[in-house]
């Protein structure tokens, strides 16, 4: 069977989530880099529009199918490859994982996505991103206060952790003051040296600019 192909951009937090999930499940895959800035964005070319009609990353070609949207991709991986699970068995914990994933993927990330920041404009984009990340992280911190263990939900790594770590990176990129979010910071520190997370980090990607790569 052909190796899965992930259409990814090195700094895309949505691509990053999927890279983490693939790594945690030990699924070998190839990366096809899609630059979101070169020539106005390769995601807008006709060829890529055939892969992903939303003209966004990530997209994953796997099992003879093409999937778009990071959460749907991760749930497909979880359902078709249940080994090394990233969802708890307990129904309450599963709901908490979905809750945190949704707050990040629907309530924070889209509001500071590249396409939105371009529309907001250079002058206001930092303030805009900081506002929405702070607002979302206040909610995430509150949710984590009742469900976090070593990680976001209990003591096992879940899809919630796959979503949280890239969003913390984005927060730092926009110089968000993270001191009000001690649980978020603790979980991020816990995971920063995990091999699956390190391998998925933007600086480890084949399309990361040399001046950024470690």
Automatic annotation (TrEMBL):
Listed pathway(s): Amino-acid degradation; L-phenylalanine degradation; acetoacetate and fumarate from L-phenylalanine: step 5/6
Subcellular location, record wording: Cytoplasm
Cofactor: glutathione
Stored InterPro entries: Glutathione-S-Trfase_C-like, Glutathione-S-Trfase_C_sf, Glutathione_S-Trfase, Glutathione_S-Trfase_N, GST_C, GST_Zeta, GST_Zeta_C, GST_Zeta_N
Pfam families attached to this UniProt entry: GST_C_3, GST_N_3
Molecular function terms, GO-annotated: glutathione transferase activity; maleylacetoacetate isomerase activity
Gene3D superfamilies referenced in this protein's UniProt entry, alphabetically: 1.20.1050.10, Glutaredoxin
All copies of domain GST C-terminal, residue ranges: 90-210
GO terms of biological process kind: glutathione metabolic process; L-phenylalanine catabolic process; L-tyrosine catabolic process
Family matches, as PROSITE patterns: GST_CTER (PS50405), GST_NTER (PS50404)
UniProt keywords, alphabetically: Cytoplasm, Isomerase, Phenylalanine catabolism, Transferase, Tyrosine catabolism
Main localization of the protein described in the UniProt heading: cytoplasm
GO cellular component, one term: mitochondrion
Catalysed conversion reaction: RX + glutathione = an S-substituted glutathione + a halide anion + H(+); 4-maleylacetoacetate = 4-fumarylacetoacetate
Domain of life from the UniProt record: Eukaryota
Annotated GST N-terminal domain residues: 2-85
UniProt xrefs under NCBIfam families: maiA
Sequence similarity: Belongs to the GST superfamily. Zeta family.
Protein name: Maleylacetoacetate isomerase
